Amino acid sequence: MTDSDSSAEPPKKRRAPGRPKALFTHDATLQLRLNQLQLMRLDEQSQVTGYSRSAIIRAALDGVRVLHAQPTVEQREQYRQLVKLATNLNQLVVLAHVGQDVQAQARATLNQVQQLLSSLLPHDR
Question: Which residue ranges does the record annotate as region Disordered (predicted)?
Fold first, then answer.
């Protein structure tokens, strides 16, 4: 290749390395003094929810109450089952549009969904 051949090609676009920059960064540092009780409550909230201390404090400043713990292994499995049941319902709807009778199957699937939802939702509502 000669120099004239390489200059005829347009220069390649360079891709930016790494993931894109976040819209909002946490670039300010705060030193916070707490008493032992407050620190214990913050650590307890952190342990129960799985969020960091900083995330809990930021959420509190934004007016969000962090009350829910991360789902347990059992709850995650129940969510997976719900996804499978929702997929089954979708397939039954497609079959119903084609003209097949899927009413009994749909009722059975909906009963399973209701049972799973009742075990996932708090009973104090």
Answer: 1-21
Domain of 84, in residue numbers = 73-120
Dist. CA 9–CA 16, nearest whole Å: 21
- The CA-based dihedral angle spanning residues 13, 17, 21, 27, taken in that order and rounded to the nearest 10 degrees: -140
Cα separation, 86 vs 113, in Å, equals: 8
What is the token pair recorded at 27? Answer: 């670039």
pTM for the complete prediction? 0.46
Q: Say whether both 60 and 43 belong to one domain.
A: yes
As a whole number of angstroms, the distance between CA 98 and CA 69 comes to: 43
As a whole number of Å, the CA-based R_g of the chain is 27
CB atoms within 10 A of CB 109: 19
Residue 65 resides in a domain = yes
Domain count along the chain: 2
Question: Tens digits of per-residue pLDDT, 51-60?
Answer: 999 989 988 8
